[in-house]
Amino acid sequence: MLIMTAPFVWMGLSAFKTEQELSSSPPAWIPTDWTLANFRELLNLLDVPLYFFNSTLVAVFVTLCNLLFCSMLGYALAKLNFRGKKAVFGIVMAALMVPGNLMLMPQFVMMSKLNLVDTYAALILPSAAGAFGVFLMRQFISAVPDELLEAARVDGAREWYIFWRIVIPQVKPALATLSIFVFLGSWNNFLWPLVATNDVDKYTLPVALATFATDPTKADGSNGVLMAGALLVVLPVLIVFIVLQRFFTQSIATAGIK
User: Fold this and answer.
1) 219: three-class secondary structure by DSSP
2) Which of 1, 56, 130, 156 shows a CA-CA span of 20 to 30 A to 185?
């Protein structure tokens, strides 16, 4: 645990250090003079609010789309009978085995043909549903008793009502787990936003920070400013995990029992 968390602790503390403390030898873990100068310098050199908005917009919409579409297909594969059901599930399982990097070129060609390059849609649509999310939701929805759904159908409930009012409340831990994974993946995604956007105003925060770090006219070798930017990238993910950790732990316990 110490080996894993030490770099993150160092990053968080370094964001509040002066340049003299960052370059001191031996290095000091705890800042002697806490300062917000690195954050002020970052805000002056980089349009952080714009890139933070871009990342938040993309991550939130990608998460919501996955929660909706993955749970819908998961419900269909778990509880409904239709022609081609096994074939659809086979495609989902096959998609799990395809490395994500192999999809970059087809996705870019598709977005280019649709004239969506350099748009928010290009950042959202390719990740709007994932095979892992479908598989996760199918496994949890399969545990919902069939008798409960049949009783609702006998009472005249339609499938949409059963899905929203009966199934979804039963799989809240799975939805929270999926939210964490999808939000984390979308927020930290670097390669696809870099490929899909040429407009600087459409950059997400990781892409903007990486571009900023390699620009000698801006970063100017300031490790404190880079640590402050890295801390801003990590904080939203930590907040999401802290908020949803109770459901995440519950989902792990439920999976272990099953």
Assistant:
1) coil
2) 1
